[in-house]
Description:
CATH topology of the largest domain: D-Maltodextrin-Binding Protein, domain 2
Radius of gyration: 20 Å
CATH superfamily of the largest domain: Periplasmic binding protein-like II
Helix content: 25-40%
Shape: globular
Oligomer: single chain
Low-confidence stretches: 1-17
Number of strands: 10
Order of helices and strands: HEHEHEHEEEHHEHEEEHH
Mean pLDDT: 92
Amino acid sequence: MLKRVILGVMVLSMSLFAGQINIAVAANVSYAIGDLIKEFNKTNPHTEVLVTLGSSGKLTAQIKNGAPYHLFMAANMKFPQSLYEENMAITKPIVYAQGSLAMLSAKELDFSQGIEMVAQKEIEKIAIANPKTAPYGAAALEAITNAKLLNSVESKLVYAESISQTVSYAITAADIGFIAKSSLYSDKMSMYKENVNWVSVDSSLYTPIDQGVVLTRMAKENAEAKAFYEFILSQKAKEIFKEYGYLVK
Length: 249
């Protein structure tokens, strides 16, 4: 009888003090991830979610080199697909949100010309994320190229390591930057006004930014990681993504 009581106490203790999960998150999601975790913890109060932010390319490289992430929220489908094809992810990439581009400046500018304004001589530095490692940087370069502006603005481009660093460059070191529109929905960015400090980039100029999530091999026996994965694809999570300017299906 005593053994049964002790076992019952042990099971209860395990449920009360659940473990940690480590997730790798694309930089553009940095503004929404806090609210997502807060909502997740309403039903999983004893799971601590540790977040590593970065460009999707660098996070993918870390996972391939053994970084102990249970889940990867990328800024595109290509990087998580490569993990799945190399048996480093146990789920196929699924789109959790669709992102979009905006142009941001700390200055008050005339945005009526749209993307063509970046060719003006007053615009001397244009911040974009590294297109080799950051999907939003690739989308920005695609938009500039499709607008037939690359030849005239290539010398102005200033490359940031991630889309969150691009936001910093856009309001400090550069005259304007191509950023994730989602960043504009954080409280810290509320001072910047549409059509005064920022404007959406014409979505016909770049390929839609489908953002994919996968569980890695580290999550194979981890129920908490699987619970967070299911939450990210839930209706509650979609509502939060919408609040941060993402499109969801």
